[in-house]
């Protein structure tokens, strides 16, 4: 059985391409980090175990019987101090703003604004991240339906 390519983040993570990863970012085990289409992960992020981040899609190539010969690629940008919960999936072309939270198991198909909590499939905003009066502990304020 072939070993995973070495990387400086986690011996059990599979990292493809050359993503840019900011200082203090932690990447958990059993993650797939696809930098083949361009990937920037900011400083101080936590990428939980089992997360998949994709910067490519071969769906059109596959269903066309390879008549559509290209593997599509679009960059992903993840801001600073972003938390991505276990087993979340980030699709190609998505930007996630600073201090956002992606809930466990979420599938992110659209951009996530800064300081926004998203959950579900597809991921949708459910609350805002707020810091009050210089408190270190953030508060999560629900977004009305």
Structural key phrases:
145 residues, mainly beta, UDP N-Acetylglucosamine Acyltransferase, domain 1, seven-stranded mixed beta sheet, five-stranded parallel beta sheet
What does this structure look like?
This protein has 145 residues and is mainly β. The protein contains 1 helix and 18 strands. The protein has a single domain (14-130), classed as UDP N-Acetylglucosamine Acyltransferase, domain 1. A 7-stranded mixed beta sheet has the order 3-6-11-14-16-17-18, with no helix packed on it. A 5-stranded parallel beta sheet has the order 1-4-7-12-15, with no helix packed on it. The chain has a 4-stranded parallel beta sheet with strand order 2-5-10-13, with no helix packed on it. A hairpin with a 4-residue loop joins strand 16 (116-119) and strand 17 (124-130). The radius of gyration is 16 Å and the shape is globular. The mean pLDDT is 94.
* Count of distinct strands: 18
> Could you state the CATH homologous superfamily?
Hexapeptide repeat proteins
The 3D shape can be described as globular
Identify the CATH architecture: 3 Solenoid
Low-confidence segments, ≥5 residues, pLDDT <50?
none
Number of structural domains: 1
Distance between the termini: 49 Å
Please outline the major beta sheet: 7 strands, mixed
- What is the class in the CATH system? Mainly Beta
Strand order within the widest sheet? Answer: 3-6-11-14-16-17-18
Sketch the topology as an H/E string, one letter per element.
EEEEEEEEHEEEEEEEEEE
The radius of gyration computed from the alpha-carbon positions, rounded to a whole number of angstroms, is 16 Å
């Amino acid at each position: 059985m072939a070993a995973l390519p070495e990387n400086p983040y986690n011996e059990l993570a599979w990292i493809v391409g050359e993503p840019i990863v900011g200082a203090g970012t932690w990447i958990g085990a059993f993650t797939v980090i696809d930098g083949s289409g361009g990937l920037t992960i900011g400083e101080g992020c936590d990428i939980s175990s089992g997360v998949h981040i994709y910067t490519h899609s071969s769906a059109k190539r596959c269903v066309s019987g390879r008549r559509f010969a290209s593997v599509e690629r679009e960059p992903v940008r993840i801001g600073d101090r972003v938390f991505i919960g276990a087993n979340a999936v980030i699709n190609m072309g998505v930007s996630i703003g600073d201090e956002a939270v992606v809930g466990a198991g979420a599938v992110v198909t659209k951009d996530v604004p800064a300081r926004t909590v998203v959950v579900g499939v597809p991921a949708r905003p459910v609350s805002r991240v707020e810091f009050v009066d210089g408190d270190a502990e953030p508060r999560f304020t629900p977004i009305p339906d």
